Amino acid sequence: MVRKIIGYSLLLLLSLPATVLAQADDAQKKYTAFDMRNNGKIYVVVTVVLIILIGLLLYVIRVDRKISKLENHN
Amino acid sequence: MRKTWWKIVCIILLIYTVVGGFLFSVPAREILHETIRNLYFHVCMWMAMMVLFTTSVIYAIRYLRSQNLKDDIYSVNFAKVGIVFGVLGYATGTVWASYTWTEYATSTQIFKEPKLLGAAIALLVYFAYLVLRGSITDVDKKAKVSAVYSIFAYIMLFPSIWILPRLLESLHPGKEGNPALNFNDLDGRLRIVFYPAIIGWTLLGVWITSLKIRLDLLKNKNILHG
Fold it and tell me: Is the ipTM above a cut-off of 0.85?
């Protein structure tokens, strides 16, 4: 049940438009790496950070479960 | 896992923060450039710290009224995790500053930056809280002294991170008001990630705290009553 909820919400998040449409005016081009999101392999960084984040979150969930077990034993 | 829904919310918000934080468009700013995205990470550490410290002091006051050791365990764990988030906020802030402020400020200006000094003072006051706790062996005395001290420590947050840095000349953005919640200053594109990010990181802090609390409650089961 919980896993289903997580799965569906992930799908929902990923289907969001990757960028909120914004005018690429001159300032935008000058101060932000506008092209980076297109071809600068930024998705690799996002994936790496996501792996780390999800790994840490899974770890927290594991600890949570272990403590729950301890509580139930007592 | 007890009451899972807010943990799921936490996970979803954090994943949204990372995806949106890296991929959504951000407003163009001089000097900051893409580092404006640190707003979703660095600033959220401080917001989470403030929430955790506030909860900690509420439980400290509750302890003084109830003399129930349970409240002490809540209070100290919220403070401890708050300190972790404060240290993370400080560390990320130094990295961010060293790539932005150094472009136009002298090192003297950076060393006397009130926001840095204030945050350092605030954190040191909380470090002293841990030292104080560690130095008392009697459980009830430890709880009472540290509850009183934590009220002082919390009050020290007001001048050191909320008032003084906003009165003095500062390199840190947002001294003209509340840096995080200034509605005129904050672009809509930042807000749609920033507010969920604050909630997500704060929930993560609360989650970790709740684990520590439950572990401490188990450890001290024989001396807790009720």
Answer: no
Confidence check: pLDDT of A1 > 70: no
The alpha helices in B67-106, defined as continuous H runs, are: 69-100
Instruction: Flag whether A17 is in a domain.
Output: no
In a domain, A16, yes or no: no
**Domain encompassing residue A59:** 24-74
Find the closest chain A residue to B36 by CA distance.
A32
Q: How many domains does chain A have?
A: 1
Cα separation, B160 vs B119, whole angstroms = 7
Whether A47 has its CB under 8 Å from any CB of chain B: the answer is: no
What does the pLDDT look like over B19-62, one tens digit per residue? 999 988 888 777 777 888 899 999 999 999 999 999 999 999 99
- Are B117 and B87 spatial neighbours (Cβ–Cβ below 8 Å)? no
Please state, in angstroms and rounded to a whole number, the distance separating the CA atoms of residues B166 and B181. 14
